[in-house]
Write a structure and sequence with these properties.
With 233 residues, the chain is α/β, with parallel strands linked by helices. It is built from eleven helices and eight strands. Helix 6 packs across helix 11. The protein is globular. InterPro entries: Iso_Racemase_Enz_sf, MaiA/AMDase.
Length: 233
């Protein structure tokens, strides 16, 4: 039987579904549940997270084999303990393995032996600083942190892989870092990973890429369609 993957996304996210589908061609089907979110602010993300378990329970009706909470800022907002508790709640709700993006990023960077990282985001300063705190607490040195200052998640979804390439190239000195993390599951970045790795000479990870990789790891699925060095890890 085909593996079924549940993905929980903000209602305004238009990127996660196609990027997850690209990561599992012929391997699994992707089924989504949406939580209300229009703007990427701390208050809105908190309110959205309150509905995560209900969304997972709806995915359980589809008998999914695993579930991913595909929202970066919504999972790192209150630190690692919050992310771990969220992951546990989702696993209980679907009675299957669960991953959340904030922890998936950490696991991917650890697997790649990255220490010094550059972080590129579409977010406003408040969300960026919370992300810095999360990564600092996880033991990573954030050498660069660059955001676009966008609140409207629909606008974030309109960004292209070329926008991601331009932002990374302008913000990052690759000689100072082991890896670049392009953050946000609504930032269309998957097609830019290998181009950026070739250009910069360092590993590049993204929110959807790491979350898909982590779900593959949990379910023992192949990672051959996941771009970049992470797909070979």
């Amino acid at each position: 039987m085909t593996t079924r993957l549940g993905v929980i996304v903000p209602s305004s996210n238009t990127t996660a579904e196609p990027e997850f589908a690209a990561a599992f061609p012929g391997v699994a089907t992707v089924h989504t549940a949406r939580m209300p979110l229009a703007d990427v602010t701390a208050d809105a993300l908190d309110e959205m997270a309150d509905g995560a378990a209900d969304a997972a329970e709806r995915l359980a009706d589809a008998d999914v084999d695993g579930v991913a909470y595909a929202c970066t800022s919504g999972s790192f907002l209150h630190g690692a303990s919050f992310a771990r508790e969220l992951e546990s709640q989702l696993a209980t709700a679907v009675d299957a393995p669960a991953v959340v993006t904030a922890l998936s990023v950490r696991r991917a960077l650890d697997a790649l032996d990255a220490n010094a990282v550059a972080v590129v985001t579409p977010y406003v300063d408040d969300i960026n600083e919370r992300e810095r705190d999360y990564l600092d607490d996880a033991g990573f040195a954030v050498e660069t942190l660059d955001g676009r200052g966008i609140v409207d998640n629909t606008v974030i979804g309109e960004l292209t892989p070329d926008d991601a390439v331009s932002q990374v190239q302008a913000a990052v000195d690759p000689t100072t870092v082991d890896a670049v993390f392009v953050s946000c599951t609504n930032y269309n970045t998957l097609p830019a990973v290998e181009r950026l790795e070739a250009d910069l000479g360092v590993t590049v990870v993204t929110s959807n890429q790491t979350t898909a990789w982590d779900l593959c790891r949990e379910l023992e699925l192949p990672t051959t369609a996941i771009p970049g060095k992470l797909g070979d890890t």
